[in-house]
Amino acid sequence: MKKICCNYQFIKKKIQDIIKDNNLPLKKIKIIAVSKNQNINTIEQAILSGINNFGENYLQESIFKIKKLQQYKHIKWHFIGKIQSNKTKKIAQNFSWCQTIDREKIAILLNKFRPKNLLPINVLIQINYDKKSTKNDIDTDQFQKLAKIISLMPNLNLRGIMAMPLMKNNIIANNLQYEKIKIIFNQLKRKYSSVDTLSLGTSLDIKESLFATSNMIRIGRDIFNR
Q1: What is the per-residue pLDDT across 156-213, written as a single tens digit (0 to 9) for each?
Q2: What residues does the Alanine racemase N-terminal domain cover (predicted)?
Q3: Is the CB of residue 131 less than 8 Å from the CB of residue 163?
Q4: What does DSSP assign to residue 87?
Q5: Helices 171-191 and 143-151, interaxial angle, to 10°?
Q6: How far apart are CA 80 and CA 104, in angstroms?
Q7: Phi, psi at residue 137, to the nearest 5°?
């Protein structure tokens, strides 16, 4: 547990140092511990180290963990993997957050399957910020349409954007990608009062993401395996 706790504190300090040294207008940064392939004991150590948010990619594996750790009522589970239609029911039933909505069909199914006794599931739209289409992203031209659809669904709570920049060997090109994400996020915030979350950044690009005003960072290796 000591290793995980030290790693977590190191990451928090790194984030705060970047914010302070660059006078960034950021307050609370939420760290998502990417816990795919981690066992129950390791995740429990992370919980006892003060980590409250966990990101999972693989549905079957994550459901097992959620059930085993259900005594920790304060924990929030984020689904951050690729979503197929046949996964939506279990995601809707077990997760507090879904970060990878990429099309209308998935939104409709999550809304349909979210149990009435639970609060609306918090959702982020995964965007294709540079229009180089990949299988898991949506074109930004469809972004506003999807956001509007989600905002009208009673069992979904539109919270913002999740993005994974395609890092290139050109610093200027990379900076432009982050700037585009920031612009899209600010446009969404102005339109919907529920929007407050930009999930952007991993161990490899914390500084760039904070400069783009990210307030949710996804960290895996540097928490569990550093």
Answers
A1: 999 999 998 877 777 888 888 899 899 999 999 999 999 999 999 999 999 999 999 9
A2: 30-222
A3: no
A4: G
A5: 30
A6: 17
A7: -110, 165
Q: Number of structural domains, the chain?
A: 1
Burial call 185-197: b when 16+ CB within 10 Å, e when fewer: beebbeebebbeb
Alpha carbons 114 and 134: distance in angstroms, whole number: 28
* Helix (H) or strand (E) segment spanning residue 198: strand 197-200
Tokens 């085993």, residue located: 68
Alpha-helical segments (H) within the chain: 2-21, 40-48, 59-68, 88-94, 104-113, 143-151, 171-191, 206-211, 221-224
Which residue in this structure is represented by tokens 């998502």? 32
Phi/psi at 60 (5° precision): -60, -45
pTM here is: 0.93
- Tokens describing residue 4: 């995980």
Domain assignment of residue 157, given as a range: 2-224
CATH value at residue 65: 3.20.20.10
Give the tens place of pLDDT for each residue, 72-83.
Answer: 999 999 999 999
